[in-house]
């Protein structure tokens, strides 16, 4: 539920404040923590995921401050049906796997570390932190509509991928693609009844197709790669709309929920 503007302002302050705390601590200690864990575990990918899990503590604290309850799975959207989400994501991303299989070589040098870091950890933790928390708390529990709730998180999400760029053109391309990706994943999260597993699996499988066939070294890709990525995105949107129509339900995000939601 969402209440008045004072309630909205309180949640905004807590959400942005604890997310900023996570970001600062992550920047200061993540690499050192991962290296320390790696001394004992000896597997970079597992160490990476464990360090990410520990870095989530400020996020979990933020959820508790907002709701004063420990039901993190509910408030982060992790209580949805993962099997339905996986099926949807497999069907929607199939064009990327097929298209890239036909055009690119299979990456025979792919490692378990790459899969755990670039596919599993990126898909899961980025969706929990950016969509489940930063976007989800603002959209689900305040009067903010979709655009203001997603905007700053999408800017942030686009910004963290700029390290992949090597000039202005690639920077703009990577920022634009990841910004729009954040908007898409946020939209999927809400339209699938706050089921965060939908964007988690969609994000994970899109990353896997990119890595499995050595599509490109960064998120931008060439025209061929983006044609099949666009087909998958269109399929995600159409399948979501079709699923809603089968249940005779209207879209959650419409002109009434784009900017400010009513107190109803």
Automatic annotation (TrEMBL):
Presence of keyword Ribosomal protein: no
Domain of life: Bacteria
Chain ranges of the CAAX prenyl protease 2/Lysostaphin resistance protein A-like domain: 114-208
GO process annotations (BP): CAAX-box protein maturation; proteolysis
Classification via InterPro entries: Rce1/LyrA-like_dom
UniProt keyword annotations, A-Z: Hydrolase, Membrane, Metalloprotease, Protease, Transmembrane, Transmembrane helix
Chain ranges passing through the membrane: 7-25, 45-65, 85-103, 115-134, 146-163, 169-189, 221-242
Keyword field contains Hydrolase: yes
Single GO MF annotation: metallopeptidase activity
Protein name per Swiss-Prot or TrEMBL: CPBP family intramembrane metalloprotease
């Amino acid at each position: 539920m969402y209440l008045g503007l004072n309630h909205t302002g309180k949640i905004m302050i807590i959400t942005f404040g604890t997310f900023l705390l996570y970001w600062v601590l992550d920047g200061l200690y993540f690499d050192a923590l991962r290296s320390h864990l790696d001394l004992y575990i000896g597997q970079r990918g597992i160490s990476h995921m464990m360090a990410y899990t520990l870095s989530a503590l400020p996020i979990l604290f933020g959820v508790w401050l907002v709701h004063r309850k420990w039901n993190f799975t509910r408030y982060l959207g992790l209580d949805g049906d993962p099997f339905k989400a996986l099926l949807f994501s497999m069907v929607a991303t199939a064009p990327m796997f097929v298209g890239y299989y036909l055009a690119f070589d299979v990456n025979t040098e792919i490692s378990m570390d790459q899969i755990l870091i670039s596919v599993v950890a990126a898909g899961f933790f980025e969706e929990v932190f950016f969509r489940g928390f930063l976007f989800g708390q603002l959209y689900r529990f305040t009067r903010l509509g979709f655009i203001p709730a997603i905007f700053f998180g999408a800017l942030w999400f686009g910004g963290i991928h700029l390290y992949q760029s090597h000039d202005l053109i690639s920077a703009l391309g990577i920022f634009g693609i990841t910004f729009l990706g954040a908007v898409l994943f946020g939209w999927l999260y809400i339209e699938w009844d706050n089921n965060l597993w939908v964007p988690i699996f969609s994000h994970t499988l899109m990353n896997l197709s990119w890595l499995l066939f050595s599509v490109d070294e960064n998120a931008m890709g060439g025209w061929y790669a983006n044609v099949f990525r666009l087909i998958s995105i269109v399929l995600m949107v159409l399948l979501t709309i079709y699923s809603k129509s089968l249940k005779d339900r209207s879209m959650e995000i419409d002109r009434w929920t784009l900017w400010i939601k009513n107190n109803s």
